[in-house]
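retry 2 of 3: previous attempt timed out while embedding magnesium ion. Reduced batch size to 1 and resubmitted. Inputs unchanged:
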Amino acid sequence: MSRKKTVKGKAAASSPSAGSPTGKWAGRTARSSPAIVPLNGVVHPGGPAVSSSSEFYDIAFKVMLVGDSGVGKTCLLVRFKDAAFLAGSFISTVGIDFRNKVLTIDGVKVKLQIWDTAGQERFRSVTHAYYRDAHALLLLYDVTNKASFDNIQTWLTEIHDYAQQDVVLMLLGNKADAAQERVVKREDGERLAKEFGVPFMETSARSGLNIDLAFTAVAKELKHRSLKDPSETFKLQEYVDKEMKSSGCCRA
Ligand SMILES: Nc1nc2c(ncn2[C@@H]2O[C@H](COP(=O)(O)OP(=O)(O)OP(=O)(O)O)[C@@H](O)[C@H]2O)c(=O)[nH]1
Ligand SMILES: [Mg+2]
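retry 2 succeeded.
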């Protein structure tokens, strides 16, 4: 398989395509091979390609983090990308930003371009412009904030209105570490997810609980859909459940 390299950067809030070098966008930027086969909105480089930074990849996808302000989207991304937790005062995201990370999934280098959106209502129209290019959405609520859980239905309506029909979607109940402040039970999250037919797990950006698993599961699902290997079946929720069981780890 050919290899491409990642590009790291920020995007201007007013320009959905600015700084988005991957997935279906990669065909238009940072690509030197003409042999590209688009499949379900995903691009497979058909030959060797070279770009300006240091990490190679085979396929690339755009993942968006959405949910109310303060649920922990930025912290989740920082935990995944840098294995660190942003403690201290809460700095609300303005507009939209992205980070890249390449995962090796069954020998395939999968680049995730992860878009961190602003949860505040006043940035909603900016976020809407980015939905249509997203291959996957991680929808977060905060287990210590009932309103963020109650708003999930509104977010699902937005997703239905603005995202692609076949977008990979996962519901995450974040801040699972905060046992004292918890007001949303894990069972409530599970029930809601079941009602809407979306995979679910609880996470903690503070402790790292299930963060890698959430992104790996999404990357596996996207890779599976993209490469369409008939010998391989993949069910996201089953994978998540199995991984949590085998790690002996808590579901919350
Ligand atoms: N206890 C705990 N606190 C968390 C966790 N994740 C985030 N926080 C805290 O929650 C606050 C909000 O986190 P952010 O990641 O900035 O929230 P956000 O969803 O990006 O908010 P917007 O950018 O406004 O949309 C910060 O004070 C974090 O320290 C977590 O897993 N556990
Ligand atoms: Mg943020």
